[in-house]
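hey
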């Protein structure tokens, strides 16, 4: 299962939070700007993302990937404060890349990713969690915000 968790991390947030933004930033040929300011959200988002992946693996007995989802509802760690901290971590990383390159293209990419996350949560993940975890999901949903507020 550890190999699946690592593969899921590389395939999903590895692509959307690191590979694609780096490709966009590097291909623009612009120098890095605001390095100190950009590294803060980049590092904080990465730490949050890794914490979430750990919680899915340890507490949920699964991965972040749809092909190997958690077997248990994860309500520990950052999931005590938000039902979707993994997405918050990815967007925070993207804000870091936007700041590092001061790139309008990366800002647009971040906005598109944010909209895609919102739609995925509302249309796929929440209905799946309701079917999978039933009353436990309902209680969790009532007590923890979708994002932070």
């Amino acid at each position: 299962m550890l190999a699946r968790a690592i593969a899921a991390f590389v395939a999903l947030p590895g692509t959307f939070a690191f590979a694609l933004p780096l490709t966009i930033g590097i291909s623009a040929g612009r120098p890095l700007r605001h390095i100190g300011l950009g590294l803060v959200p980049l590092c904080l988002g990465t730490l949050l993302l890794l914490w979430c992946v750990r919680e899915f693996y340890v507490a949920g007995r699964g991965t972040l990937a749809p092909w190997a989802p958690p077997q248990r509802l994860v309500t520990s760690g950052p999931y005590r404060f938000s039902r979707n901290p993994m997405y918050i971590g990815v967007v925070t990383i993207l804000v870091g890349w936007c700041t590092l390159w001061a790139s309008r293209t990366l800002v647009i990419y971040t906005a598109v990713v944010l909209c895609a996350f919102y739609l995925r949560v509302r249309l796929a993940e929440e209905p799946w969690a309701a079917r999978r975890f039933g009353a436990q999901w309902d209680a969790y949903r009532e007590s923890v915000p979708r994002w932070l507020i």
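The chain has a mean pLDDT of 93. Helices lie at 2-11, 13-27, 35-58, 85-101, 104-143.
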